[in-house]
Specification:
The chain has helices at residues 2-15, 186-190, 193-196, 211-219, 292-317, and strands at 25-32, 39-44, 63-69, 73-84, 90-94, 115-119, 127-132, 141-146, 156-158, 171-173, 180-183, 235-237, 241-246, 250-251, 284-285. It is of the alpha+beta class. Helix 1 (2-15) runs antiparallel to helix 5. It is globular and about 45 Å long. The two termini are 13 Å apart.
Length: 318
């Protein structure tokens, strides 16, 4: 009977390698497609094992992967215009975490900053994730699940450069005033409860989208634009790894569908990428599927380790 139970355990490890204690983890791969260096920052939620490192430099064209334990939760963001002064203090013009060092060491991003937020292995065993502009915006970001499943397991983000279109009252400019480097939220800019969803406006019924949050939502319809923007901005996956791309490169060519015939001259053209609809569903973003093979290999290795554990247990009983 004990051997039967172990056989069931073995098979479950093959089918669901994430059940292997201490083996399965989610891999986050950071890709920088900006034409400048980005310094990702990482803040883990209270009470969960922090990731290491908590901040690093990512040169243009570079990538870096980090493994997160099951049930990890936290946020990622990109810091820009960073430098170190003569005393060795490290600081960034956008997304600075105030640590004075390359690593953030438990400190979060100073707004405005584009945020990617995750809760792994949450309700129903699903990962919950979103890209948020609630604290403002500093650079384009795309989160793409790899190898996962679920009805709402899809890419999300804000792939539009909002710094140029940012209203003057929200704009953060470079130190020499030559251009916009970030766009504040209305809450940060005006400190009013109707923009911050606080005080008398602290419920979904009383806190409504503002003209400023609607500007963000129009440009980036999949991203959180204000505190109660849940219905269109939260995504879920099971058993996925994730690629987080800064400045994803839009490729407007459509993927060929096996069920579609060649287009004719009288067919309607693809939806235009405009200010009102810059995130149209015909766009394919580079980097979204680049690591799916690595994701499958990651799970295969976990499955093999699971088999080894179960075989060793059976041998101990023989």
């Amino acid at each position: 009977m004990a051997r039967l139970a172990l056989l069931v355990t073995l098979l479950s490890y093959v089918v669901y390698p994430q059940l292997v204690p201490g083996v399965y983890s989610t891999t986050f791969t950071f890709v920088n497609k900006c034409d400048y260096t980005v310094w990702p920052g990482i803040l883990s939620n209270a009470g969960v094992q922090p990731l290491s490192p908590t901040g690093f430099a990512l040169d243009s064209g570079a990538s870096k992967s980090l493994d997160a334990p099951s049930s990890w939760g936290g946020r990622f963001w990109g810091r820009t215009h960073c430098s170190q002064d003569s005393s060795g203090k490290f600081s960034c013009l956008t997304g600075d975490c105030g640590s004075g060092q390359l690593e953030c060491s438990g400190s979060g991003a100073a707004p405005p900053a584009t945020l990617a937020e995750f809760t792994l292995d949450g309700a129903g065993g699903m990962d919950f994730f979103d890209v948020s502009l609630v604290d403002g915006y500093n650079l384009p970001m795309l989160v793409a699940p790899q190898g996962g499943s679920g009805q709402n397991c899809t890419s999300t983000g804000c792939v539009v450069d909002l710094n140029g279109a940012c209203p003057s009252e929200l704009k953060v400019t470079s130190s020499d005033g030559s251009g916009g480097v970030a766009c504040k939220s209305a809450c940060e800019a005006f400190q009013q409860p109707q923009y911050c969803c606080s005080g008398a406006y602290s419920t979904p019924q009383t806190c409504k989208p503002s003209s400023y949050s609607e500007l963000f939502k129009s440009a980036c319809p999949k991203a959180y634009s204000y505190a109660y923007d849940d219905s269109t901005s939260t995504f879920t996956c099971a058993g996925a790894d994730y690629v987080i791309t800064f400045c994803p490169s839009p490729n407007t060519s459509q993927k060929a569908s096996s069920s579609s015939s060649a287009s004719s001259s009288d067919e309607a053209p693809p939806a235009a990428v405009t200010a009102s609809n810059p995130y149209n569903n015909t766009m394919v973003y580079e980097g979204v599927e680049e690591t799916s093979g690595a994701s499958a290999s990651h799970r295969a290795l976990a499955g093999l380790v699971g088999i080894g554990v179960a075989v060793w247990q059976m041998w101990q009983l023989s």
